[in-house]
TrEMBL record:
Domain Pseudouridine synthase RsuA/RluA-like: 105-252
Record-annotated membrane-spanning stretches: none
Catalyzed reaction equations: a uridine in RNA = a pseudouridine in RNA
Sections of the chain in a coiled coil: none
Record-given protein name: RNA pseudouridylate synthase
Residues in the signal sequence: none
């Protein structure tokens, strides 16, 4: 597979509520008309009648912003755009805080339960969509991601041309991330303890797992910093960024993070319990700015609530 181009294709449709239109790139194929392809592509999800209705409404547009007709000849390589019809989403009842904002970046305090970017059933109700709307920054993009159930710092980039520089910092592990977690107290050395293991997250499986004996692909440094009865507060510093890494490593130490719905036992899916967030917070980000070379450190203003 060839190297993916870094050039961002700007579509003709404006965002709706901070959500981008979908770009449809037409592949090579045998379809005679645009309708034939769109029905093949989307009828299973929304039905052929709805595809026809969207064509009649002018919902699908070409690069010039003009609606396309279903009977137009099919042309592989062409791009179309349209807005998804989004089902209602429950609003996460917490606000996104702003820790820092300048002409290049926004450092936000994402609350628990709010997804960073559109994915699955969370599209309009995401930190990215909210910030685009609230700050009037339609080109805002994240430089990295934070799990939906984890609260704390996320770095967003204001201008598309600057995004690669900040993404490279995270890719090359030149950002020091510091987390906090509440978990059971375990007698023994306060730490720090370094945990290394091989973590696998399979597509379609909600929980990740460790592979005993395999070459480690993850590393975390974990230190107990405070005790309150049978619970403790831990400082977590990941050296790598595997999916659910800190949650998996805390569980492996016998101190699973409080109110974790996956580790050690997968909780049955159900309505969100906003009173029982995962007690994990992305507390600090520290790096050298790629543009002016200045050292920067950002700290979350959120705090983990002790139970009781």
């Amino acid at each position: 597979m060839g190297r993916r181009s870094a050039r961002r294709v700007v579509g003709p449709l404006e965002q709706r509520g901070g959500v981008d239109a979908v770009r449809v790139r037409l592949p090579a194929g045998h379809w005679a008309t645009l309708r034939d392809h769109l029905v093949d592509r989307y009828a299973r999800a929304i039905g052929a009648a709805r595809v026809d209705a969207m064509l009649a409404e002018g919902a699908f547009v070409g690069a010039d912003g003009r609606p396309v007709a279903g009977d137009e000849p099919y042309a592989a390589g062409r791009s179309l755009w349209f807005h998804r019809e989004l089902p209602p989403e429950e609003r996460v009842p917490f606000e996104v805080g702003i820790v820092h904002r300048d002409e290049r970046i926004v450092v936000a305090d994402k609350p628990h339960f709010l997804a960073t970017t559109p994915r699955g059933r969370h599209v309009a109700e995401t930190a990215l969509a909210r910030l685009r709307r609230d700050l009037g920054l339609p080109h805002l993009q994240p430089a990295h991601r934070l799990d939906r159930l984890t609260a704390g710092l996320v770095l967003f980039v204001v201008r598309p041309e600057d995004r690669g520089a900040y993404q490279t910092l995270f890719r090359d592990r030149r950002v020091r991330k510091e987390y906090e977690a509440l978990a059971p107290y375990e007698p023994g050395p306060a730490g720090p303890v370094t945990v290394r293991s091989h973590i696998v997250k399979e597509r379609g499986v909600v929980a990740a797992h460790e592979v005993p004996g395999a070459e480690p692909n993850s590393e975390s440094r974990i230190e107990r910093v405070e005790r309150r009865g049978g619970l403790a507060r831990y400082r977590l510093v990941p050296e790598t960024g595997r999916t659910h890494q800190l949650r998996v490593h805390m569980n492996a130490l016998g101190v699973p993070i409080l109110d974790d719905p996956l580790y050690p036992v997968v909780r049955e899916d159900g309505p969100e319990d906003y009173g029982r967030p995962l007690r994990l917070l992305a507390r600090a980000l520290e790096f050298t700015d790629p543009f002016d070379g200045s050292p920067v450190r950002f700290e979350s203003r959120l705090r983990l609530a002790w139970p009781g």
